[in-house]
Design goal:
With 458 residues, the chain is an alpha+beta fold. Helices cover 57% and strands 18% of the residues. It contains ten helices and eleven strands. The strands form two sheets. Strands 5, 6, 7, 8, 9, 10 and 11 form a seven-stranded mixed β-sheet that branches. Strands 2-1-4-3 form a four-stranded antiparallel β-sheet. The two termini are 95 Å apart. 19% of the residues are buried.
Length: 458
């Protein structure tokens, strides 16, 4: 079984408690020794005083050889508490009076006093007293037990008070500091606390560490975001570069057949009747449109300079709808409604505008829209070309990334995710933009902002 280390509070409390216990034991031993000496001194002084008083009293009896009086004195004094033996001798050492029985005990249990009996300068005899001190160790033992119990009681109270003081004055403030300095929060600076000097210094150290950790975390997050953004741009650039190479080869391969189609359509138009000439004109327009689409495909990797001219937007939109609507009916389109301000003219690239409108109509139909409303509104120097549908709307997780390359909600094989990216690129090349005005479960409205024409067509 793995033993858990003691907490800081427990270690400090045990250390200080052990120190207090050692001090208490030393004080207790010193008190015990002092009381023992005091009791021994008291008994010795008592015995000494009794012997002196008796020597004064028996002097007259010795001088007149009244030994009966001496016997009475001795027997009367032996009844005194703790006095066990009394002996009177003359100057020659002969026993004059005796009371009690001497005991063969160690000097530790008996206080023996030898007091001379003097008259003027002559020594008449000697008094020998024996006081019993065997009760002193028992008294000291009881006193020691009482002192030990009191000492442990006091030590227990001090230990409890010390533990509470350590918990409230040291441990809890440190825990509060540790919890308040959280580098994951925006502000890791805690509220002001009335802290001792040592904990105030610790608080300053925590605050510095917290700031350093936040700075390192911010630098790490910034580096990760920068690396992720750079990697994403690199992948897009690689895919766009590959797409550019494919588009360049496709444009080179299609230029010759498209040129032949245009040439033969123009020659056939000179040799046929008016109705066939009109159809050949449509073929020629569509061939030119294909040529423009192929060229616009290159904008994903190397945008060309747009060929800006004054464009009658209602006519261009009507022509595009007329050509696109029959194809989109196969995908569920029921009708297209157009509304334009008059005259609604723009400065733009006709092929680019057709490509943008074609992409928006195609995307709406493929997303499930059955009706489209195309409007054109003039706002000072800008014209807003809006395409609204009744489809299911754009998923929220795709709205912010909808115009990025290769981002699409279509099933694999149904789209490349380049249509809206190319449309926004074309719009920005013409000085405008393409944005999502509104999207919900009732439909989506995309707005192409273009520059309004400032003069007549040159």
């Amino acid at each position: 079984m793995v033993s858990r280390p003691l907490t800081l509070s427990a270690q400090l409390t045990l250390t200080l408690g052990a120190g207090l216990l050692a001090v208490g034991l030393i004080i207790g031993v010193a008190v015990h020794q002092g009381i023992s000496r005091m009791l021994d001194s008291a008994i010795h002084d008592k015995a000494q005083s009794l012997a002196r008083q008796l020597s004064i009293v028996v002097t007259d009896a010795l001088l007149i050889y009244d030994y009966g009086t001496l016997e009475r004195y001795a027997e009367g004094l032996v009844g005194t508490p703790s006095l066990e033996y009394l002996e009177l001798r003359d100057s020659r050492g002969e026993l004059l009076a005796r009371a009690g029985q001497p005991r063969a005990r160690s000097s530790a249990d008996v206080v023996r006093i030898h007091q001379p009996i003097e008259a003027a300068t002559s020594v008449l005899g000697e008094i020998i007293l024996e006081y019993d001190r065997s009760d002193i160790p028992r008294q000291l033992e009881r006193l020691a037990l009482m002192l030990t119990a009191a000492l442990f009681l006091i030590m227990g109270m001090l230990f409890w008070l010390l533990k509470r003081a350590m918990h409230h004055r040291v441990v809890r403030p440190i825990q509060a500091l540790a919890e308040s300095y959280n580098p994951l929060r925006q502000n890791c600076c805690p509220e002001d606390h009335d802290l001792p000097e040592e904990l105030a210094q610790l608080s300053i150290t925590f605050f510095g560490l917290c700031q350093e950790i936040q700075e390192h975390m911010a630098a790490r997050d910034h580096a990760q975001k920068t690396a992720a953004s750079a990697l994403e741009r690199l992948l897009h650039e690689q895919r766009l570069a590959t797409l550019g190479q494919m588009a360049a080869g496709l444009a080179h391969a299609l230029n010759t057949p498209l040129g032949n189609i245009l040439g033969y359509a123009q020659m056939a138009g000179q040799e046929t009747d008016d109705r066939t000439r009109q159809r050949l004109a449509v073929i020629e327009d569509q061939a030119r449109l294909c040529d423009g689409i192929v060229r616009n495909l290159l904008t994903a990797a190397r945008p060309p300079a747009p060929q800006l001219t004054t464009v009658e937007l209602p006519a261009l939109v009507a022509a595009t709808v007329e050509l696109t609507e029959p194809v989109l009916r196969n995908d569920g389109l029921e009708g297209v409604e157009t509304r334009f301000d008059d005259p609604c003219r723009i400065e733009g690239d006709p092929a680019g505008v057709e490509q943008i409108l074609f992409n928006l109509m195609t995307n709406a139909t493929e997303a499930g829209a059955s009706k489209l409303i195309i409007t054109g509104e003039e706002h000072r120097d800008r014209v807003e070309l809006a395409v609204a549908d009744d489809g299911p709307g754009i998923p929220e997780d795709l709205r912010e990334r909808l115009f990025e390359p290769f981002v699409t909600s279509k099933a694999p094989g149904r789209g490349t995710g380049l249509g809206l990216h190319l449309s926004r690129t074309l719009a920005r090349e013409m000085g405008g933009d393409l944005t999502i005005a509104d999207s919900s479960s009732r439909g989506t409205r995309l707005v192409v902002t273009l520059r309004a024409a400032t003069g007549e067509d040159s």
